Amino acid sequence: MSFFDDDDFDEPTYVAHEGESRRASSRRPGLGGLTGGGAPPDAQTARVRQIVALGAIVFILILLTVAVNSCVKSGRKSALQDYSRDVTSVLQESRSEVADPLFDVLSSGEEANALQSRLSSIREVASDEADRVKSFSPPGDDRGKAAQHDLELAMNLRAEALRVMSQEISRALADASTSQEALDAIAGQMQALLASDVILLTRTKPLIDEALRDADVSGAEVQAPRVLTDFTWLDAEGLAAKLGGGGGGGGGGSSSGAVRDRSGETPATPGLHGTSITGVTMGGTQLSAGASTAVPGRKVEVQVNNGGDSDETQIEVGATFAISGGQSVSTKRVIATLAQGQTATVPLTLPAAVRSGVEGELTITVGGVPGEENMDNNKQTFQVTVGG
Asked: Cα(89)–Cα(101) distance, rounded to whole angstroms?
């Protein structure tokens, strides 16, 4: 009967509670394991850890920002240098492949058809350069955009100037009834070439150079050579005097003006010194003093003889044509060396103002050499009518 006493039933109840306690205890270590074991950190420790983690993240972000910014600056410097080099390259080519050949052609003395053909070739080069700059990518701020805009404007002015010149050159070399309008048009385009120089030197170059300085880039400044350096090309009268042999663009080739007389200088060698004119042709026709001669063109050839005892150097030979009732135009060349007893043929082409239908007086002059005493044979004058 003792097995059925109330006290005997307390143990199963106690065992059941003890099992629950063990199961609860077995779950608690598991929670501790998820946080690394042991009791969870207090609030202050957790906050310190969070601050340290946040600081590490900020530091990494700063490093990334600095690295990216350095790459951006380096890329911008490189882009500026490349852009400056591209601009310099095309401007130097514009001088050497467009401007220099242009003035050489205009002062060559060639006939209208040959001049037009050569000018058309130069025009194509100028047009290609104008198209080429449109592909340039200016880096940086609004200064780069402004510099690019002005660069394109300047190159377009040059291309358009060559287009008009190649169209008008034939009329400029025709008779007086049609040439003046064409000469005015060509002189106007010379003004456009001057304007392109002004734009590049006062806008494009300063803007790019300023951007380079701000980016701490040195040694990459834009080089912008002028294409027009002789301002006598800018008006129709000066153009007519130069066109066809009267002078080169920035110098070189034939020139105009008085022939230099050096007879008053002390000669380098003793003995007789002297030169003389032995013959003159114009348009292939032999000229005679005191007679009026009809000639077919503007080309003059002068035969100069050295009658002295020594070789002579730097002898100037010039031709001046005084148009009846109009202006006088001139051209000259230099004989670099003329040996003793030898004769040189000097080709000269009178400026475009000497055109078909013009009458006038042609004067040929040979400059005296050092020690020359007799200058009677150094000058001859002819009456000439220019035909077709």
From this structure: 17
What class is the 275-386 domain? mainly beta
- pLDDT per residue as tens digits for the range 169-199: 988 877 655 677 888 999 999 999 999 999 9
Sheet strands side by side (includes 312-323): 292-295, 379-386, 359-366, 312-323, 328-338
d(CA 140, CA 145): 8
Please tell me the pTM assigned to this model: 0.56
Q: Where are the domains of the chain?
A: 66-242, 275-386
Number of alpha carbons in the 13 Å side-chain half-sphere of residue 315: 29
Residues 6+ positions from 73 with CB-CB distance below 8 Å: 215
Of 164, 158, 139, give the one whose Cα is nearest residue 198: 158
Q: Where are the beta strands (DSSP E) in the chain?
A: 275-282, 285-286, 292-295, 299-306, 312-323, 328-338, 343-349, 359-366, 379-386
Helix (H) or strand (E) holding 203, with range, is none
User: HEC profile for 57-97?
Assistant: HHHHHHHHHHHHHHHHHHHHHHHHHHHHHHHHHHHHHHHHH
Q: Quick check: 90 and 133 in contact, CB under 8 A?
A: yes
User: What pLDDT digit, counting tens, does each position of 125-158 carry?
Assistant: 999 999 999 999 887 778 889 999 999 999 999 9
Under DSSP, the state recorded for 38 is S
DSSP for 307-331? -SSS-EEEEEEEEEEEETTS-EEEE
CB 327 within 8 A of CB 280: no
Q: Tell me, what DSSP letter sits at residue 295?
A: E
